[in-house]
Known about the structure:
Blueprint: E1 2-4, E2 12-15, E3 18-21, H1 25-34, E4 41-44, H2 53-56, E5 61-63, H3 71-74, E6 89-90, H4 113-126, H5 136-142, E7 156-163, H6 169-179, E8 183-187, E9 191-196, E10 203-209, E11 215-219, E12 222-225, H7 229-238, E13 262-271, E14 289-295, H8 297-303, E15 308-314, H9 320-323, E16 325-326, H10 330-340, H11 351-357, E17 359-360, E18 365-372, E19 381-388, E20 394-399, H12 404-424, E21 427-431, H13 433-436, E22 479-481, H14 496-511
Parallel strand pairs: 1-8, 2-11, 3-4, 3-12, 4-8, 5-20, 12-22
Antiparallel strand pairs: 6-7, 7-14, 9-10, 10-11, 13-18, 13-21, 15-18, 16-17, 19-20
Helix pairs in contact: 1-6, 1-14, 4-14, 10-11
Bound molecules: flavin-adenine dinucleotide (FAD).
Amino acid sequence: xxxxxxxLPDGTQLDGDLCIVGAGAAGIALAMEFVGTATRVLLLxxxxxxxxGPMQALxxxxxxxxxxxxxxxxRLHYFGGTTGHWGGFxxxxxxxxxxxxxxxPHSGWPITRAQLDPFYARAHPLLxxxxxxxxxxxxxxxxxxxERLPLDRTxxxxxxxxxSAPTRFGSKxxxxxxxxxxxxxxxxxxxxxxxxxxxxxxxxxxxxxxFDGRTLRVRATQFVxxxxxxxxxxxxxxSNDLATTGLGNAHDQVGRYFAEHLEMPAGTxxxxxxxxxxxxxxxxxxxxxxxxxxxxDAQQQARGVLNATVAVEPAPESGEARSTFEAESPExxxxxxxxxxxxxxxxxxxxxxVYDAERVRAxxxxxxxxxxxxxxxxxxxITLSSERDALGVPRVRFDxxxxxxxxxxxxxLYSSVGREFGRLGIxxxxxxxxxxxxxxxxxxxxxxxxxxxxxxxxxxxxxxxVVDADCRVHGLGNLYLAGAGVFPTAGSANPTLTLVALALxxxxxxxx
Length: 512
Ligand SMILES: Cc1cc2nc3c(=O)[nH]c(=O)nc-3n(C[C@H](O)[C@H](O)[C@H](O)COP(=O)(O)OP(=O)(O)OC[C@H]3O[C@@H](n4cnc5c(N)ncnc54)[C@H](O)[C@@H]3O)c2cc1C
């Protein structure tokens, strides 16, 4: 069933068993699990079926820490959520991501990768992914053209990624949800506050408000906030009538430990056998999978670094990555000559000239692109701004912060890749200057992957996290969170596969 909440009179009250706030990747995956059950689901979506300017403007916020993208441009506020423009890169988190790593303060999930595996497998068809198999050997067998680099696999190994269509949740699941007799989808139903009972130990209702001031009250037995990381934080902090510091925030944890993925080019490679990178390149037509390079778990531990991968991507025909590469020795020049054969530009006719110029301009160049987790940092945080949106809700004040461990980890990975390519004689890697410097210098815009994780993290101790291992908000009997906000650490993998798997796991818990 579907109702446009704009058609409802002021003061309407809705009742159900399960109220899900937000119809993006997490909210839709959760709601789909209840289709055809006896549970009366109320799915409240703030936006309509299409993007609308005033609705999107509700996402505006203050950026006070590291420069970041405009907050109303990253996440999408309509049915289907941010899957309306996501890229579809998917991989599960690695087993090590769930463990407590002595060299990564505040690391460790209260659940293991093995516990999440059945839900990853169930999430795959929702995201239109291939088999739930991320072993490099499995994907090599699918395509005989693929070959593996002869790496020292005690140091570096492959991490496989798969690519979703990318599936747009709004288009894919709209019909099934609207036709479901036990699911009632309300569009234009922006929740502005979560109303706790008198003891502030459970939720009675959520309140929806329209731009013209009309309100709805929605009651249910169980509530799930699935509004995206920043919106979930905002709603918890803004719902401060009874709990003055915000719901679930008795220990000042809501909004802390925000983490992005550092997704940025930080080096360039020139390779003698570019065809050896086939296993590592996109191949949408054949397998929709590719490998990236990561430091083994043992190396991460030995060198005290975070989890990350490096993609070796053919550099575009024009642009910074392929344009220059500095030669540091005659051996380098010889390697470039072999790699580039006849593609030296006209003004660089001989090896000597190239070396004299200490620069070579040639193909094939590759960009080294990182995907790295961010060290959990309580000071990387989301709070509320003094400015309010058109519905009267305080906007987000976003203070994104990085640490020395983030930079140390990226540099360690890149130099390991460089050393390994050099040892094998297959190429040379050049790091960006800012990565070589010892200080905390970063480029002016450190690009994140548009992945909001953390800020409502999972921890069994209410003093160290916001939700428990079942994604239930500490201290509140019937309020749950869905989305990447519950990740204590985010690994190197993009978040959507994991947050959908967690939503399916939550569905099982709620049914139980
Ligand atoms: C450009 C871009 C590329 C990306 N590429 C990838 C990728 O390749 N791989 C990957 O894994 N991830 C990627 N992501 C991230 C991915 O889009 C998110 O992880 C995912 O969409 C988050 O799901 P969600 O359900 O938590 O939030 P969303 O998908 O944002 O959904 C939240 C929903 O809640 C609704 N809502 C918000 N507030 C309220 C309210 N107060 N009341 C009612 N409803 C509300 C919103 O309208 C929305 O429908 C990308 C993101 C961006 C921006």
